[in-house]
Structure formats: C-alpha cells, structure tokens
Amino acid sequence: MSKTAAAKKQMTTKASDTRERRDEQQAGIALDGNTRGKFVLFAIPVDERVDDGPVMRGLIETEQGRVNVAGWKRVARDSGNDYLSLKVGNTKPRDADSPKDAPDEWLIGPFYGRLFKEVNVRRGVKTARYFGFVEHAEKVGEDEESHKGVYKTHWQLQIKAAPTVSNDGRTAYIGGTASPAGVRAATADNALPF
User: Fold this and answer.
1) pLDDT tens-digit profile of 72-112?
2) Which of 134, 162, 182, 187 would bridge 113 by S-S if both were Cys, CB 3.0 to 4.6 A apart?
3) Is residue 55 within 8 Å of residue 71, measured between CB atoms?
4) Distance between CA atoms of 71 and 88, rounded to whole angstroms?
C-alpha cells in the first residue's frame, strides 16, 4: 500500500471514529418533561437563508449536552400574530455519498414547539419577552369540521426568554431557559412573610 493510500485510510478511520464518538454522545442526551437548560436562538444572516428555511437557529443546553433548535417565522391563522415554529433535535451527519433527498436520521427528536413575542410599553420604554413551548406530541386524528390535526401530548417544556446582546456587544440573540411546563421559578416574594 502506498504512503498516500495509507494516509487516506488513516484519515478515514479517524473521521469514522470521531463520528461514532459524537453519535454515542448524542445518544446519551435525552429531552423529556423534566428537562432543564439554557435556551438560545441566533438570527441566520439573510444571505445564508434558504427558501422556506429557518430564520433562526440555536440550541437547548442541558447537563447532558446540546440539542439543536431551528425556528421558522410563521403567522397565526386566528390572530395574525407572528411566531416562530420550532423544530428541536439532533440528526446524524450525512455521509458524502448519501443521496441528497434521503431522510434525516434522528438521534434526538424531532420535537416541535412555538415561540411567541410579547412587547410592552411602560412609560415610553418598549420591552420584549419571549415565551413558548417545546413538546413531544403525536397525531391521533383530525377534526372533521376544522380539518386540523388532533394531537396527544406526552410531555411539554416551557420556554422563557428575552432579547439579549453578547458581552462584546456585537451579537443580538434570544436567551433564556427551558424548564418543565407548569413549574414556576422560586421568587423572593415566596420567602418573605409580607
């Protein structure tokens, strides 16, 4: 075997080992109704966006690792308000020789959710906050009148976030938390007798 062929084989083996380790690490990450972690979303630069693709991407970071999040801008049918439709999960990287139209192989997820923006004006100052959810739900039927899907929710995480700027002041992003739905964070008010 020539030196070039041996070097290529060694590089291929190293890349394969790295992929296998990454896949094993991803398999150790689990999202469920008890997950707690950081939630961040960054805007995808306009020149990098694709038709019908996400406008934001980020992650949920838990003690076990990171899970990817992508957000598509949508308009609510009933209210006309904008929201982000979220897709959460990690896929196995595609090999160079795999067909382009082959389905993704999911290591975690996919899970879905929504993120809403609330803007308040108080004393002339505008503030925004984001709230939403990520859930594991399965379609169990369809409503005959509205033709909307009927889903059974297995678990749900709540998302609470706010617009944030990086320490260097260059990057604006949405940052917050993911926690079990219905759980309230302890506040100082709870500890005070009056």
Assistant:
1) 999 988 888 899 999 999 887 777 677 777 777 878 889 99
2) 134
3) yes
4) 9
Name the region of 89 (left: φ>0; alpha: ψ -120 to 50; beta: rest).
left
Q: Give the pLDDT confidence score for residue 176 in this predicted structure.
A: 95
CA dist 131 and 160 (Å) reads 5
Cβ distance 65 to 26 under 8 Å?
Answer: yes
The single-letter code of the amino acid at 112 is Y
Strand partners, 88: 69, 111
Report whether 130 contacts 174 (CB < 8 A).
yes
Say if CB 58 and CB 174 are below 8 A apart: yes
SS3 for 119?
Answer: strand
Q: Are 109 and 125 in contact (CB under 8 A)?
A: no
How far, in whole angstroms, is CA 143 from its chain's centroid? Answer: 28
Per DSSP, helices labelled H in 28-134 are none
Residues 6+ apart with CB under 8 A from 69: 39, 41, 57, 58, 59, 60, 86, 87, 88, 134
* Cis bond before residue 110 (omega within 30° of 0): yes
Q: Please give the Cα distance from 73 to 53 (Å, whole number).
A: 9
Is the CB of residue 36 less than 8 Å from the CB of residue 177?
yes
**DSSP code at position 58:** E
115-125 per-position pLDDT tens digit: 999 988 889 88
